[in-house]
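User: Please run a holo structure prediction.
Assistant: Happy to. Please share the sequence and the ligand.
User: Here you go; the ligand is protoporphyrin IX containing FE.
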Amino acid sequence: MLRNTDRSWGAPAKLMHWAVAALVLAQMALGWAAVSWRLSPTKLDLFVWHKSTGMLILALMVVRVAWRSANPPPALPGDMSRLERRAAQASHGTLYLLGFALPISGWIVASAANVPFRLFWLLPVPGIVAPDRALAAVAARMHLALFVALSLLLVVHVAAALRHHFLERDDVLLRMLPRRRGRT
Ligand code: HEM
Ligand code: HEM
């Protein structure tokens, strides 16, 4: 089943959710490792991995949003209050925003700091801003702040998914899992 229905997510939406989720978690670890590593060839490699994975996440987010715009999400369970619905919509909207803001701010850091890189050592990636040390410093602070915001929101996101499953006992988590179509 490719398209989302009123009750379940289609395969592309599930695949992109879990691919982005796995890549983002790996990306957070890579970012920390790259920043904390002592100056060495390994540190430079970690940065190439980090920047390349980040660009991959950005590309996936573009495809994901395009796909979603043509595929409305399944309806939320009928017994959720207005406040819960608003919270779900707002947090999902913010997760989408952060999925763009993090890679773009990272791309600005790399461009402004004048550290060009090749995507997975293959494709040269153009800068999006001219070299500018002050901008690089501001963008790096933004990148860190966005990372903290994403981490906090993900704690809430995962807690909400577990609450749906174990406390509310609805199919919100199950319908996002592979090969589950939710209640019919
Ligand atoms: C690792 C544990 C995670 C779990 C258990 C989880 C669970 C879920 C579930 C059950 C939904 C479906 C909500 C619904 O049907 O209305 C969902 C939606 C969503 N998740 Fe996750 N998620 C996880 C990680 C992530 C990560 C790391 C990100 C982003 C960086 C993310 C971003 C989103 C977004 C943006 C939506 C909304 C999808 C849409 O409305 O198009 N999730 N998540
Ligand atoms: C979802 C995507 C991304 C996530 C979750 C992420 C996360 C992180 C984390 C956790 C750090 C270490 C903490 C910090 O100093 O900020 C970091 C640093 C960094 N990231 Fe990313 N990043 C992402 C995308 C990118 C992209 C696409 C690029 C470049 C093309 C990039 C370039 C950098 C740079 C240059 C640093 C070092 C900043 C500094 O010197 O303070 N990041 N990132």
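The chain has a mean pLDDT of 96.
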